[in-house]
Amino acid sequence: MNIPAGPLNGIRVIDVTQVMAGAYCSMLLADMGADVVKIERPVTGDDTRRMSASLDPEASRAFVAMNRNKRGVALDLKSSEGADVLRKLVMNADVLVENFRPGTMDKLGLGYEQMRELNPSLVYCSITGFGSTGPYRHHGGFDLVAQAMSGLMSVTGTAESEPVKLGAPMCDLNAGLFGAFGVLNAYIHRLSTGEGQFVDTSLLEAGIAATVWETDEWFATGKTPEPTGSAHRLSAPYQALPTADGYIAVGAANQRVWEALCRAIDRTDLLDRTEFASNAARMQHKADLVRELESHLRSARTEDWITRLRKHGVPCGPIYDISQVHSDPHMIERGVTVTTKHPVLGEVRHLTVPVRLSATPPRIRRTAPLLGQHSREVLTECGYSTEQIDQMLANGSVAIPPTCASKEPV
After folding, report:
1. Using 50, 70 and 90 to split pLDDT, how confident is the model at 406?
2. Of the residues 35, 46, 143, 172, which is catalytic?
């Protein structure tokens, strides 16, 4: 079968990242067909290789989750030979992504200004905790800290709860998304001008960007938004409500759907009450509205309510745990997971790419690399001889897995 190449086929990305935000950025580009070369430290590799219950760093699911579709090179950037290899890679690359603290790559002689001298058309993306400028630029950045300082934690949970972070690492993932977004915009600019540029984004700003609705509320009213649990800030009813055997998420975000909801649950009497006559009135009397709905919805199971609500066109759904997500027939038919073969873990399931393209579909081509799995292959492509590579292997500036001593594994 002739499988079309991804939309970024032919683009070379040098990935000098660790853990999540930067690795997620480069993985998104890899999923779309870019040739992503992942650079890791010899011996220890990416920090996520040690985030595993297994003593074997090659068995780290945290690393596998963020590094599919990449080729792996183990390179000591603190050594002169290792830094020279990176410079040689950059000369023929389109994009470099890194997520060290500001100034780290400059100290290694590998910062943007140094790299643009070698390759003026290079798109150089830096993802940091707080950005490349400002008084916090040298502080370490973690998702938890970014969620705290961006305001996200202040609007998560309920008024009675202690500070709560989102269950998913939103700032890390958003920073990766914005990094990829910035890279693609810079690359489009390069196509018309030949000019590369520096792309700068941060976990903190990725978190702030996610508060767009809450921040605008503050802009408009001067009132600091508070946590609302699962409820909407501007519409009611729009939240999770209890049933006889669990909860159901109900989104009656406009008057038409509110009226359909009342008909679906046989509570048309609520339509005659002035305190529920409009969205503004429902928001003003939300506590009373929720009490009415909760007491009624507890009379039947979630599945029964979903059947009735969907029949009347009311947006709703069950609240799934992760295992339920992946057993739902809709998710199965949509193919939200894909399986690859890993040399240590065997068959590994991945979340698939959540964007479908009809002409150039993205796809999962390979699992995450072993530490240094493609070192010899990539260095050979750069013009290094077998003798030169062997010398670098001997002095530790480059590394390969033991299984690659004679040739690269498939």
Report:
1. very low
2. 172
